[in-house]
Amino acid sequence: MTLILGIESSCDETAASVVRNGNEVLSNVVASQDELHVTFGGVVPEIASRAHLERILPVIRQSLDQASVSLEDLDGIAVGNRPGLIGSLLVGVAAAKTLSWMLEKPLITVDHVLAHLWAPVLNGANVSYPALGLVVSGGHTSILLLKDASTALCLGKTIDDAAGEAFDKASSILGLGWPGGARVDNAASKGTPKHRLPRPKTKGDRPDFSFSGLKTALLYGVRGNPVRKDGKTAFPRDVSMLLEQDVFDWAASFQEAAVDSIMLGIQHAVTDNQVRCIVAGGGVLANTLLRKKLEAAADSYNIPIHLPDFNYCVDNAAMIAGLGYHLYERGHRDQLTVTASPKGIAS
């Protein structure tokens, strides 16, 4: 029996989790910062890092209490140290290094993107390799070829906005608020994708993604093409002029275009690589249309697909502890000189 404490602080969730043997989640505590950033319509890095400082120790204590274990019971400390907001990452890394030194327990650093692809294992998935990995979140949209759970080649990634970021911006354009993923999904469920929006594709052979043009097309569709008047640029319309059903239809149109863009990347990658399954993770995997289309695509390719439970889509420490267990079993150990990095395997 191996107990790993996972610590996650890559963006705006402060999280800690105790996982037994890589897949039995004994606790999974996530402290959201949404209320701190909602006024700004997005995550403010300085606010996020300060909030992590305030919350990291109470969250770790709560995770240990929920798991009914002590610090001495742990076999290792895993922490997401890349990629992410550097100020936020440093808080989690400092906490993990301190615990490792104090308890004389192994320290294991984990790539946050790869950890998202461990999330389906937490709800019973048995992933066969080589696998095609898809991570779709607020900061990352990446397709990876996985040799195993911790060895991956990045086949494609976003060259501008991540899909989750694009959903947030679309939600703002439509006056739905922040964070935008669930809001756009809910609005889209009441609408019809009647507006034709682009499915951007980057040049070259890689299945890379681009969402900034889609976001701009939505903005111009909703508010009209900007005009120059009296030395100022302005839009002829405002979202407040739309009927509620119009907002729903635009949300449905945007969502379908964004999901289609992701599916084009998957189709490209599956065609070009021999894989035994598809495994996916990240906050945007909570989107109902994306899950439906991924499952349909896997059926058409006649390969299994492994999706995370909804509570493991959001950034969490259980996925960090789970992948940390895999690395621990392989003999991976980090020195206390290790630090955080804003870049990871898919950067």
In words, what does this structure look like?
This protein has two domains: 3-119 and 312-329, 2-Layer Sandwich (Nucleotidyltransferase, domain 5), CATH 3.30.420.40; 129-303, ATPase, nucleotide binding domain (Nucleotidyltransferase, domain 5), CATH 3.30.420.40. The chain has helices at residues 34-37, 45-67, 86-103, 112-116, 163-173, 181-188, 212-223, 244-272, 288-301, 318-329; strands at residues 3-8, 13-20, 24-32, 76-82, 107-111, 131-136, 141-148, 151-157, 227-229, 232-234, 277-281, 305-306. By secondary structure, it is an alpha/beta fold. The longest helix has 29 residues, at 244-272. It is 39% helix and 20% strand. Strands 3-2-1-4-5 form a five-stranded mixed beta sheet, with helices on both faces. Strands 8-7-6-11-12 form a five-stranded mixed beta sheet.
- Calculate Rg over CA atoms: 21 Å
Distance between the termini: 34 Å
SSE succession: EEEHHEHEHEEEHHHEEHEHEH
Question: Treating each run of at least 4 consecutive H or I residues as one helix, how many helices?
Answer: 10
Number of strands: 12
CATH architecture of the largest domain: 2-Layer Sandwich
CATH class of the largest domain: Alpha Beta
Instruction: Give the strand order of the largest sheet, numbering strands 1, 2, ... along the chain.
Output: 3-2-1-4-5
Helix content: 25-40%
Overall residue-averaged pLDDT value: 95
Task: Note the main sheet.
Answer: 5 strands, mixed
